[in-house]
Write a structure and sequence with these properties.
- The chain has a single domain, classed as Rossmann fold, CATH 3.40.50.
- Helices cover 35% and strands 26% of the residues.
- It contains nine helices and twelve strands.
- Strands 7-6-1-2-3-8-9-10-11-12 form a ten-stranded mixed β-sheet, with helices on both faces. A two-stranded antiparallel sheet has the order 4-5.
- A hairpin with a 2-residue loop joins strand 4 and strand 5.
- Helix 4 crosses helix 6.
- The radius of gyration is 19 Å and the shape is globular.
- The N and C termini lie far apart (43 Å).
- This is Lipase-related protein.
- It holds the Pfam family Lipase_3.
- InterPro entries: AB_hydrolase_fold, Fungal_lipase-type, Sec_MonoDiacylglyc_Lipase.
Amino acid sequence: MKKLKRYQYERYAILCQLSYPDAEAHYRQVLKPFHERHLVDKYGRMSVRILWVDNKKEAIVVFRGSLGLKDWLANLVFLPTRIKQVDKKFYVHWGFSRLLHQPMYSSTKTIDEALPLQELLVKVLEPLQNQGKRFTFIGHSSGGAVAVLMADYFERKNAKAVKRVVTFGQPAVGSRSWYKNYLLHHKTYRICCDLDVVTFMPPFPFYFWHVGKMLWLHDDQIYENTPTHKRFFKSLSSWLLRPITYHYMRKYIRNKSLFDEH
């Protein structure tokens, strides 16, 4: 597995932030080099943004996370449901299966031409694939869950079409069978930050499994593939001790850049 480079991490993180409606004013300039196409839900909210540059081989597919109470309530429906991924069937979280199959329409079409997200996205990406593009699927929270499901589905339909998968604060998606048959473990980076409670969801660790390589950002370090129980207790102990650690001299040194502005 190739390492995720700093500039890639930063770009993907900002693009995930830009999938939410309140972020455009701060980061709009990041989108300037890209051509864009949006997939929109029945409420007219952008749910997927597709980005590409003519002279680059990579196209980026960004999945928005939850917006509003209805989305969050669906995320809490931990019931497993069976889905078909081209040639395989798995049990996955019902809420994420719902998102994968929700009616969606392209920003160039009308709502009367809505298709399930999974079906529509394959159609929209086809012209870019014909131009030789390979696809990076990224997303935050439930958008990360949909990203891994959609990336696996797309790879099954189009071998070697997926360049990488990068998720932020992603909950677990599916059963042990899903984990064993996931095609993109070696191309998937699952990024967690400190004690992000969503990354421990659903609260059934021996039924719902994470995929890919975990990169845990904690105490100014990156830890790789830390077991869930160790991550939880290390985060908890760090949080409890945090008032004491703020007294350490290294904390003062770390903030030296603040004085460069004065």
